[in-house]
């Protein structure tokens, strides 16, 4: 049973009607934005998988569907075999997501925020694991600091800690190192690489393609809501050519005829 399964996923955002009469006469999918177009892929347990694409390619929409924040217009998505719609409680217990945006509750300290997050998943007396996560993310000395007092980089570390606090088997990192310092990037990747070696499945989106090339065993590339390339990192580089993943990525995104999807 794969860690993540996406079968024929499409997502259409309805166009905003110009008038009430237009809204009443239009179908929900008429003239809408097709953010995802029949996307199918699987991520096996223990993989470090890269999901790459330019802005607007559909990466965050796909993650939102897996996390239950958006519903696909068609197709099915599963996390560890649990359908994200019909078995949403188990699918969400199996998933930890680090979002792009920095979102936090300004009324709590770091430790209180993590205890609260644990409670969402029915976990009590989770302080030993919270301490371990805080230590590995360089947050131990900030444990009793209010979230409002943290820098942007420290807040992003807390987002990572919140995604890990219930020990999910699948971890999604949506551009986790965007705009952060070198120290956080190094600390984060060391900890995530350790979790991956311990059996956690990692799905990464990033615009730092050197990170994806160094970390990911397989990569899928999205373009216009479609999967245009899916292969191991080494095989993709060999097939497309180029000196590195960034070069291969640019070639694929600029070639309107390219459709290099493999099974």
TrEMBL record:
Domain ABC transporter: 4-249
Pfam families in the record: ABC_tran (PF00005)
Keyword Metal-binding: no
Superkingdom of origin: Bacteria
One GO MF term: ATP hydrolysis activity
InterPro entries reported in the protein's UniProt record: AAA+_ATPase, ABC_transporter-like_ATP-bd, ABC_transporter-like_CS, ABC_transporter_ATP-binding, P-loop_NTPase
Swiss-Prot/TrEMBL keywords: ATP-binding, Cell membrane, Membrane, Nucleotide-binding, Transport
Protein name (database record): ABC transporter ATP-binding protein
